Amino acid sequence: MRFSEWDEKMMRRALSLAKQGQFSARPNPAVGCVITRQHRVIAEGWHQKAGEPHAERVALASASESVKGATVYVTLEPCSHFGRTPPCADALVEASVSRVVVAMQDPNPQVSGTGIQRLRDAGIHVDVGLLAFETEVLNKGFNFAMRHQRPLVQLKMASSLDGRTAMASGESQWITGAESRQKVQWLRAEQDAMLTGIGTVLQDDPSLTVRLDQASLDAQRCYRNAAHQPIRVILDSDLQLPLTAKIIDLPGQVVVMTAELTLTAQPQKLLQLQQKGVAVHGVAKQQTGQLDLKAVLAMLWQCYDVQRLMVEAGATLAGALIQADLVDELHLFKAPVLLGDGARPLCFLPGLVKMADKIQWNLQSVEMLGSDIYLQLTPNHKPQ
Fold first, then answer.
1. Mean pLDDT of 253-266
2. Each residue of 163-194: pLDDT tens digit?
3. Are 21 and 53 within one domain?
4. Does the annotation count 136 as an active-site position?
5. Where are the beta strands (DSSP E) in 144-222?
6. One of 44, 56, 312, 329 is an active-site residue; which one?
């Protein structure tokens, strides 16, 4: 299908609208909709928050005139099932629009082509695929989770030129500059959850919060409350988490994943954490003694609707995720400093003894942030 310049212009407008909901709409995807007649925009809308009207219904409600015979541009296939809101495909059918242009098919198994078919069965002309790549990127967490039944895992790491993350003492503030640290805040703002290990908590007492003010969010037209925080997840096999840890007392939900046997072995600590508002889940251990990372990811998806998960952890957990093929994106910040042989390594990767054992990554982008280099990479394999 060859789309016209007008089609592309209107879909880009719909994408621009959709981006305003990229923080607030989750766990739903960010969706925008534009309705036109004779090269005039007569209505538009975007999905602001889960449970509230979808983009198509917002646009229909805002129409300045009848939409009968109009063309609709929507960034994601209209839903065809009853969830917290009625099906949007039915609303478009009832409105008697003549054409619907869809950027991409919904990967949600509850939809996955049925919305498009519902429109076509009603005699509405449907074209699919305009700016599909851009829409895929906008909702990459939602799309990935729907296809793989686990969150998209983004591993954030910061290192010196010689691949070190901290001095031998653990001192690490700051390797990278202010520009890199601000970029990390925006990356955190995109997440549903942050993940770290107990070692990092005991060593650094991190907050793992988003520290962006409302003015910064408003400047980027992000429909998000600055007080909203991603879920903070801690892997803690033996419930060593101190009750005084900063990560517990800050606003937002805290989840601890521990070993199943620990739940019965430490009932008092379990109760103390629960009284502090911490949710604690038991997870099976692997033969290595580590928690089953695949089970952790599955639980975060099933229990908390986590679609995008950023990992900020030490060398052990980072290496374990990499070797389990569970890292989907690597966000690496490199500072122009050298820390020396005694400093802490980027990650532990035991078992790599030959060049053939190397773990290959694909470089997606490089950006200068002040004096630092910011690299985005993806693994050279299919997601597990």
1. 94
2. 888 787 777 778 898 899 989 988 998 899 99
3. yes
4. no
5. 152-159, 164-166, 193-197
6. 56
